[in-house]
């Protein structure tokens, strides 16, 4: 591990806790910088070889009233010796800037029963009696648990260096964590330089001084350290969040236009792209609205390389008519939906997998297209090239369903070996050969070659009206039915190229859990724990949702029960008025029931946070088919 | 290293000696009603294409939905007949990535001034280099006679049978009120020479050239421009060397007002009709930022992209 930190000068009675994994939370009022502190801690941990998964704790407002539970802002960082695939169940150690934000996490049952809590203690002796009272009330409530509190005079310490501790405590807190977990101070300083490189050198110096102050304070006052051994990967790794990975993936795919309108939690991908895309010959176009955003992307696709648009649920809803048009004119287009809680404005900053059915079936008429969902940060990177290639090969729309958990979570993954073959080829503007029609459908496969403006002898008018091979408008039954068949058939051809998904765990058993998207890590961790308990549980994770991957019915047949686990709404089967007939199920469950005729059950929740593996485990135990010991 | 054929500025082989005639641009027989003003616009556009010798494969007509949006089907250029109100974003996408193509947008008054009004205002402000024709007949024709934003007050329709409730929106005032608007003109379908001259000026403009074409609907708004068609005295031509001049109209159209299209204040005043129909270029300014020009990016070879990408990835390396 770190060699940069000086060896502790304290006597050996200091406890060193050696654990395979540990979960840290840093929470402050919004604007106090807990996120920056936690992000640096997470990145440095990844760079030191630990497995890492981070989840943002985000208030809905930019500046909610300070010292309120709603103001809680920060991150959870789960680090491990082995790769970490999800945010886990509970935080083992917390750095809290005040007792109210801590209370928020406590009430959400986010903290382990024996969590160690380093807390700013200035509030206990504050001049304002209301604040002292709030502190005491909070401590009473928190005192019901066996947390270990360690008061830290964060503000008082920071005042020795700076005038406004609200803008510096976070680096002090980072110093505390750096000492506790023996993080490499040089690597931290590199990250600080990276974060503040655009600002002043003086700012960098102050932040480093605060970091060292926190580090020294911890060394002089704490009686424990935590060691999460790291195993350096033998492969080069990168560390980033899912939105950065999507943006990188877009560049690596050779696309050159991202057309977007600001919406949480999709926008940070465009921020990242806006910074660097032009160097690559690309453009981020901020359109006047969501509809224009997809329209510009479609126009660009019509005239050249495949373009993409990125949005979230409410924006996708607005794009619906254009999605139908893109399907009708058979133009390649990639649409990224970074899902958040819905319906309507819903939970803008929180995770949900509620857009699946809308993504597949949300367009009027029959509008067949491909829907896929990455399950990890690495897949966010890779799936864009996959999407771009499918869109081009099949002249179709490809929707990519990411979510807020992937978008803001940080995880290290093997550095993608980007390759020239990933990049889109420049459009071929050679003259169109005699007799080629704009929709020269292969009669069996429905596939055809795209004609692009600029190609001599290829002139045609793309139209959203029902049309024949010449793109001539036709309302007769045979023209319309033939168009529908051709647009659908090519997806069947595509589906035949897919492989059946692998099963995690045994190939047969009592219960098969089916998931999709960002829940992969939490589901597999729960399944592994269930298997350790002796339950015959396996899982399967889908990347392609439309068309579905092949072989599902056969796989399902090897299990006594099949159940989806999803972050979307379903009725509790035991709730009042709910019957087998009227029960509204999880979205993937609905899809699988319809396509396999297997009685697929579901366990879904919409907590506005990622699923915890422990909760999934409880659900698995409770869902074991009758006659199985649980 | 530059990637062969990578730059979209270069098209496939074009026959340099080929001379294009109006017939080369004509496609299917137009199916508008007899007497519809759209026929005249189509002819004027074909004449402009011929005058400018625009290769059909390098010309794109984008439209929305409505009678006038059938326009691209009747031309042998590339066309994109999309959805109601959304022609401008599609055209913007074409323009952004393909500066080599000549882009024209054809919209009706429902498209431009109602369902797509947001795009219209922002397109004026973005100022991409393309021609936008508003074929304004003051009514929804394709859906059979509903009130449009430009229907005159009192005009009866199927949705406002006791007459249009509101005074009409003035597309010229709206256009001239948008920051960064660079070309605003008005012409009429019954004056083919003026129509041609105005569209020609628009096609030569660097930036977003907005042309409102007063267009007669023989079915639902027969009376709309009837007075002006019969009585040239009701028409006032804005004339200027930097605008359009149509000498063949001088004999009949005596109401001519010199107007310098560089004068925005005067343009805004003249946009108010004051009982006259004013035709000509109201405003023209080629010194304003053109969005697609400001967003032009270097063309990168695959090898260059990979080098840059790896350098960026280094910043995220563990």
Describe the structure.
The complex is a heterodimer of chains A (630) and B (318). Chain A contains 20 helices and 23 strands. By secondary structure, chain A is α/β, with parallel strands linked by helices. Chain A folds into four domains: 213 residues, Pyruvate-ferredoxin Oxidoreductase, domain 3; 185 residues, 3-Layer(aba) Sandwich (Rossmann fold); 70 residues, no CATH class; 121 residues, Rossmann fold. In chain A, helix 8 packs across helix 9 and helix 17 crosses helix 20. The longest helix of chain A has 21 residues. In chain B, the strands form two sheets. In chain B, strands 2-1-3-4-8-7-11-9-10 form a nine-stranded mixed β-sheet, with helices on both faces. A two-stranded antiparallel ribbon of chain B has the order 5-6. The N terminus of chain B is likely disordered. In chain B, 31% of the residues lie in helices and 18% in strands. Chain B has a single domain, classed as Thiamin diphosphate (ThDP)-binding fold, Pyr/PP domains (Rossmann fold, 3-Layer(aba) Sandwich), CATH 3.40.50.970.
| Terminal-residue CA separation of chain B | 31 Å
CATH topology of chain B: Rossmann fold
Q: Quick one: CATH superfamily of the largest domain in chain A?
A: Pyruvate-ferredoxin oxidoreductase, PFOR, domain III
Oligomer: heterodimer
Structural class of chain B: alpha/beta
Q: What would CATH call the architecture of chain B?
A: 3-Layer(aba) Sandwich
> Helix and strand string of chain B, N-terminal first?
HHEEHEHHEEEHEHEHEEHEHH
Uncertain ranges of chain A: 1-8
Range of helix content of chain A: 25-40%
For the record, the count of structural domains of chain B works out to 1
Count all strands of chain A and give the number. 23
CATH class of chain B: Alpha Beta
The CATH topology name of the largest domain in chain A reads Pyruvate-ferredoxin Oxidoreductase, domain 3
Number of helices of chain A: 20
Q: Report the structural category of chain A.
A: alpha/beta
Rg of chain B from C-alpha positions? Answer: 21 Å
Q: Tell me the overall shape of chain B.
A: globular
User: What are the low-pLDDT stretches of chain B, counting only 5+ consecutive residues below 50?
Assistant: 1-13
- Determine the mean pLDDT of chain A: 95
CATH-level-4 superfamily name of chain B: Thiamin diphosphate (ThDP)-binding fold, Pyr/PP domains
Strands across the major sheet of chain B, in which order? 2-1-3-4-8-7-11-9-10
